[in-house]
Write a structure and sequence with these properties.
8 copies of one chain form a homooctamer. With 161 residues, chain A is mainly alpha-helical. In chain A, 49% of the residues lie in helices and 9% in strands. A 3-stranded parallel β-sheet of chain A has the order 1-2-3. Chains A, B, C, D, E, F, G, H: Keywords: Isomerase, Lyase, Purine biosynthesis.
Chain lengths: 161, 161, 161, 161, 161, 161, 161, 161
């Protein structure tokens, strides 16, 4: 995260990672206010055992792209629709339009949960337990929709002709 | 890819994957014209040994998001700026704004090469050879910039005060 | 509908259809969380006697376009301006920019009522009762405007020079 | 169509309708230059036996919306990206954001062919021949994709790992 | 105005016209719900002695453009940012992008007051009293700014180095 | 006009004014490069007998708005889509979003002809000859559409069912 | 500032300048309501000893660009997201897209504080005290981030794996 | 500059600086491909005697913002409309929307010349020679407009009523 105000949005990522039993750390790294911390953080990430980085930011959201410049780990960007944002569109474009060789895997506006799911999918490439967990998670998503349909039906919701 | 016209854009991904020595397949799967093929392709992808999927598309680019709905493999989306696109912005928004649980790792407009680099980064998480290859690739990118500086300097380009 | 939160918007369609005496069903079908249900729903729609499909969605709204891929019934799309939407513009573009052969009849942001009117217009093509009902509905719309003018005039509203 | 220059775009609709054996007429009706012609055309459309109207327009594209105001037939709008258009976005918004009661079924930018497919789908609601024709058309679309895959494969295109 | 909800925005125009002593009428004319009333209103406007028309509208705001099609009086358009608007941008584009020969004099989003000032300027072309009134109005605008500066200065506002 | 490159766009206005027999002058006034000339031009416009001002500009198009600040004559703005423009949208917004009291009558992108028609409409408010001329001009527009229909019909164009 | 309502946004600039010990004045200058005051203010700015100008504005924000036309002092523009703004995007484009020779140094939406920091950086070019102050300010920004990290860590915030 | 392809755009800045007799250097610094070079370049800029930095970039243009994070010199950003840009709007937003404390003075799309003029204005704050040069430059701009008027007048261009 680039600032404390991003915490509310980004904590959704922690919830998902915890649910998948994936150890993680969450910290503040501001590309513009603590740029050296960002360089060090990104450069040491792989050595320290980190395997995927999730970086959120609002406005001119340089954090994911700059972190990506200092590491070859996959970097996931979360555009944050902060107070001064232009509907989050400024951050989407700041993250997504990277030059050849240094991609940022960008997810939707404020979609920190999805960033965590994507990170899990990356880690699951060679991890049977996570692959299983993801399949189960999908079933949960589906079951939740099906349960909602049941509830609506009971509540007099007109489901069938 | 969703259509043959996307081939020109997407072949940049093949070039990068070949360079990294990563086996891959490239094929046409249209979400709207061959929807069953898409369902089967996505559902069987993991079983068939695929580990990352790259899906490009223009206009209402549903391919990456729908493929992601039928697999838990990571899916990378490449918005393609085709003739009828609105600057590729329609495809960016069609890909990036996915609901919670089913992310698409979206890269820049027409950035098929970056999709391939991102796929390589994902595969490199547990692969020392690819990690090394990525580090070398980065050095190549840097060297190319440095060489350009040299050339410009020789060509009378004013580099220093 | 793709999610329960869309119900508030989409129920306006039910009100209109009920008013026209058109039998209908309303249910949840998530393209990303219940993709197989979506395939089945769309594929069986014609056989089950459905004649027009209305599909709403927010963000990367793939439901109408993907339903259209699995049926040749006319599909009407309703872009929903949900919390994370970019003014509904992301959903408009996700729905409207379909490839040749698989159209979605897209209506305005949150315009579920209009989707139902459009469905009624389609059904009225060969239905004298519905054609009459539509003509009467139009007169109602007009009368409501004329009554408002009367009220404003009585309220001291300056209507004429 | 609102102007002669729209003919090039709109003729794609004729091709599709001819293919489906649907009788049609195509003419110029300018909402701003021949407004009375537009009123008459729209008001008499149903009596004259027309069953669906397709209206294209660029810029401030009022034709579909205004035609819809004078008839209860379904009206399909085709935003045209003309020289002075803002990427066709001005026409999309001019067509799609209609008030309650008077919908326009809007398709993608320059998607006249899709407007014709949508019209066919509407007419097919109560027409077994057209329903069959639409199913066959879909198979054609699919076959064309499959044939392209074959051709690419023969051409040395790397289709499988 | 196209609907009663526009009244709150458009009444600012009445205030300005009253201030300039210009007789006016304000009424509802919906291009889509009372299209014949619109045609008649626009066609008779000049004969009835109206000299400038101000038309406001939200969403696909066809009123000003269609009124302009039925009269050669100058028509001023006021884009209204209603609930379902896309920041008023949909209405700006619906009004401003008119075809050659049928202009709409478009003012800013919700700028009904400015529409009235513009109407006054048009009427003042051959009217010395209104020309004077406009000059005085400008002085009032200036004086109000100057008075605000005075007040801020008294309130400890730091005006000078 | 703000620059010589605008001449090609703006000369369409001259053609229309000449056609209506309205005397006019056309000159360069750059708000940023000849700001004093702009102030003088705008301030003296009424005294010199000018009755309507048409001002075109690209990019940050301040000319119409600033001219309007120095005169109470009606000012018509023409957004010009120059090389560095963002589809003319930057100029539309620069012109249209004026503060209360100082309106600019904005027309479509590159619509200099329409600016001239609008100016004619303003002058016609108290001018029977111009009113007649405008009515005839409208008939011409209509006739041109009708003639095109004839031509297309002769050319084998399918006009009727 | 162009209007009193901008004061709330622009006062953030005063706070920053006071903090750096830079004498300043803040006043209202409306480009459209007090255009002569604007001309005089801009023309006399250098003579009066001003060295950098900060100009904020909403909507069609002409103040910075027009002030820049009447002085060769550097002018910093602050786009203000006022009630009628289109997300501040109208003001960004009104300020940034200046013609060659008359630049405006534009900062982010509502970023008055940043305008003041930028002004300080300009003044610091030849001022050792301000250069020092800026370096210290940066350290403060960094320290604030580091302190937040400490606080979050104490509050049970999971900072490390 | 971030890449060699930016050279064509950025060289306009060299021309202006040369014209003002301001010594400068122009070099390639890619924030993503040579990130350490960028850090060093920005950190040493002040010590090496640089006084203003101009940074151009296309797409997700992080160069100006990141350079600004590593120096307290004023940084001017030039959004470049490269092949894959979204009309330069992506780069404008990437540059302009900086967090408090680290501004980028952003100029228009491809406006490298204006970046150089702005740099000259900053340097002129305490430099009488440059102040004079800027005043003369403005007169040149004005004279060029006036000369164009003369030429147009001679060429039969209708300048006066």
């Amino acid at each position: 995260m680039g600032s404390k105000s991003d915490l509310r949005t980004m904590s959704a990522a922690s919830d998902v990672l915890r649910q998948f039993g994936i150890p993680f750390e969450i910290t503040l790294v501001s590309p513009h206010r603590t740029p050296h911390r960002m360089v060090e953080y990104a450069e040491n990430a792989r050595k320290r055992g980190l395997r995927v980085l999730i970086a959120g930011g609002g406005g001119a959201a340089h954090l994911p792209g700059m972190v990506a410049a200092f590491t070859t780990l996959p970097v996931i960007g979360v555009p944050i629709n902060s107070t001064l944002s232009i509907q989050g569109l400024d951050s989407i474009l700041s993250m997504i339009q990277m030059p050849t060789g240094v991609p940022v895997a960008t997810v939707g506006v404020d979609s920190a949960a999805n960033a965590a799911v994507l990170a899990t999918q990356m880690l699951a490439i060679n991890n049977a337990r996570l692959t299983d967990a993801l399949e189960k998670y999908r079933i949960t998503l589906k079951d939740r929709v099906m349960r909602t349909i049941e509830e609506l039906r009971k509540g007099g919701f007109q489901d069938d002709v």
